[in-house]
Sequence to fold (451 residues):
Amino acid sequence: MKRKGDILLQSEPFVYVLSHKERGRRCDSCFESGEDLKRCTVCKVVRYCNSACQKADWTSHRGECPCLKRVFPDVPLDSVRLMLKLILKQKAGDNGESVKKDIGWRKFSDFLSHSSKIKSDQQRVEQLSRIVFTLGKLLGDSNLPPANELLEIFGKMVINSFTVCDGEMQSIGVAIYLSPSLLDHSCEPNAVVTFQGTRLTVRATKDIQEPSPANISISYLDQLATIAERQKQLQEQYYFSCQCNRCQDNGLDGEMLSVRCQSGCCRGYHQRQEDDSFGNCNDCSYQGNKIRKEEVDRFCVACQESLRKIKEDSKNDPLKVLQLCKQCEEEQKQFFTDHNVHCVHLLVKAFDAGIESGQWETALKYGTRVQESYRKFYPPNSPHVGIELMKVGKIQLYLEQCQQALITLQQAETILSITHGRSQPLYEDLSDLIHRCTEEMRVKMQFSIQD
Fold:
């Protein structure tokens, strides 16, 4: 029996690569951020905190180093580097038995390659061709494994790779883990994956009577998506369809695709039905058949295009992103509720842009709206909800809304103690915020008594 919050398994990676966007900001060995990172003097690509990290990574980097030096100043894509490391592992005869802290459920040789499905997938075939072309430059064409072996390695890699995230669930790298890759997907998982550096930890988010691999499920994707979107992503990336309870229930989809009541006299909404029509307003019963579906669909497409542009601009000026979000929100507010999935994604962008630009009141307004939708659409004890609550609570504390901040931060603590555990740096930061909040409330109370 495992209780929610209990560790189910931990594993170090079989192979791993720091994301290109984090290069120079994080150590290529431990993935911790740092300012004075030491560059490898040979390949001039990877960087380390210190000699200890360089030594720890040498087994992984030794074969890659001359390959990177050969093509410098060009740096291969993350997927190319990951596959290069897998090829080097195979050449060394390493099937994964040497991975530290792995529970030993499987080896890399046990992985399925899905080669027949990949050969029928034009996008994957083209991706493999591009990777092999670059690998030829790195290793030399004569040193590449035979074509059938390359296909096997590629298939195992793309199906089983994990996105390594920081404490706030932001992508910082990619890796292959052996035993954790045995865990199945569910859109209603009973466990969650988090990382501390490159070490992967799986914790229970529900009580699990018999915690065997067959009884543990994690989510392979972001659950803030409709059934159709999730099924499409799973089929395209992993070649299967999900049959979990959430994928059989269209209720959440109805809310994710809901539109505001068009009567003009209430604050209700119309849920989208399975047949793509709209139900009557949940407040005033205004008839859903009066809604012009074509116009709603046009707004959906326009909103998706706006989100695409905002995503491109998010790399630049956060104030510009915030302005674009406000403009898009104004255009769509006549149709979309805060729970419409397009609106939720927009609110998230606005929230993050508000934080990055220091517009704290604006950020709080958007963050409060985001957390309400997150609670509705993410499963219980989701780290995404906990992190969002922590960010909102931190802003409330900064704006001296201490009483509300304490409530929000304690709600975050309830979730993050389960998903991340109490030894994670993120949880320690949260504990510091709660302590600061209670201390400021105590000081204010003392002053009010004296007055």
Summary: The radius of gyration is 24 Å. Residues 378-450 form a domain with the Serine Threonine Protein Phosphatase 5, Tetratricopeptide repeat fold (CATH 1.25.40.10). Residues 425-450 form the longest helix (26 residues). The mean pLDDT is 92.
